[in-house]
Write a structure and sequence with these properties.
The longest helix has 18 residues. The protein is of the alpha+beta class. It has two domains: 230 residues, P-loop containing nucleotide triphosphate hydrolases (Rossmann fold, 3-Layer(aba) Sandwich); 107 residues, RNA polymerase II/Efflux pump adaptor protein, barrel-sandwich hybrid domain (OB fold (Dihydrolipoamide Acetyltransferase, E2P)), CATH 2.40.50.
């Protein structure tokens, strides 16, 4: 893939507070890239600098080989879809979509054809005459998306695009959004604090914290091989063990995902490729398809295990029951030396 966007050492502060700190990133043509992180980490500020609404103090933004750092928003091959959609309440769906095209001076026949194409693309042809207040949340979201795509930007920026939707509609819209992006081939940059949304949408994710880009990679790479405890803890459930228990290295921290943990009776022993640790049962949360079980070692380390309903029924643990945690040594992921210290600001 060819790089479409190159961000080089971008910095932006508000007063004495750094919002984005020497951030560098390459986004390829035709991909969905998610900037993921907690509130206040700088991801929306970065998005606004890409759109041209904020000016960086240093660094550069290159889009399709052109330096866009100081280019006004209207002259960039970029459009943005805001979290609240920012639809004009007095305009119909069709007129909202046509707004930017009309201002650009597009001829009436071409404008009509383009709006009709977009209405079909987002499945709103039957709703073209409706005003935003008569639409569902999903229909408003698709109207805003069609308007953002109307002028065929090379880069579409989406700020928390699914935050206003309920969970079921959000999941359905995630699938639609990925399908639409594949049809168009337009590069999307999505800002979100929702890890499930990022994992479902993105071909690659960049994890941000306190203005820094901590790690980038595919969803699977970040989940399976986080570089530090912050990334491990931000993406999904995880337990942290010190290396003193397993490798005799007290300064090493090991991340262990719940789906890689087995719980057995107190008499169970590990094989050569496994590790066992005596624990006692603390609590369990029913998740529908599975149970999230929490156990604790004698030294106070909490470990999470994901069990099926059948496994939970067979184990039938009582409060304080003695059990054994068993997991494969190959599933232990060693984190960067800072270990648990890098958890500051996570979840």
């Amino acid at each position: 893939m060819l790089p479409l966007l190159e961000i080089k050492k971008i910095c932006k502060s508000f007063g004495d507070l750094p919002a984005v700190n020497s951030l560098s990133l390459v986004v390829n043509a035709g991909e969905i890239f998610c900037l993921l992180g907690p509130s206040g980490c700088g991801k929306t500020t970065m998005l606004r600098m890409l759109a041209g609404f904020e000016t960086p103090e240093s660094g550069s933004i290159m889009i399709d080989g052109r330096d866009m750092t100081a280019v006004p928003p209207a002259e960039r091959p970029v459009n943005i879809m805001f979290q609240n959609y920012a639809l004009f309440p007095h305009l119909s769906v069709a007129d909202n979509i046509a707004y930017g095209l009309r201002r650009s001076g597009m001829s009436a026949p071409a404008l009509s054809d383009r709006v009709d194409e977009l209405l079909h693309l987002v499945r709103l042809k039957r709703f073209e005459g409706r005003k935003p207040d008569s639409l569902s949340g999903g229909q408003r979201q698709r109207t805003a998306l069609a308007r953002a795509l109307a002028r065929q930007p090379k880069l579409l920026l989406l700020d928390e695009p699914l935050a206003a939707l309920d969970r079921k509609l959000r999941e359905e819209t995630q699938v639609e959004l990925v399908s639409l992006q594949r049809q168009l081939g337009t590069s999307f940059i999505v800002v979100t604090h929702d890890q499930d949304e990022a994992m479902s949408l993105a071909s690659r994710i960049g994890i941000m914290n306190e203005g820094h880009l901590i790690q980038t990679g595919s969803p699977q790479e970040l989940y399976d091989k986080p570089e530090n405890a912050f990334v491990a803890d931000f993406l999904g459930e995880v337990s942290f063990l010190t290396g003193a228990f397993i490798r005799g290295e007290p300064d090493v921290t090991i991340a262990l995902r719940p789906e890689h943990v087995s719980l057995r009776s107190a008499r169970a022993k590990a094989t050569e490729n496994e590790f066992d640790l005596p624990v006692h049962y603390e609590s369990a949360t029913y998740l529908g398809a599975n149970w999230m079980v929490r156990v604790k070692s004698a030294s106070g380390i909490t470990i999470k295990a994901l069990l099926s309903p059948d496994e939970m029924d067979q184990l039938a643990p009582q409060s304080g029951a003695q059990l054994t945690v068993i997991f494969l040594r190959s599933k232990m992921h060693v984190l960067a030396p800072d270990g648990l210290a890098s958890l500051a600001g996570a979840k």
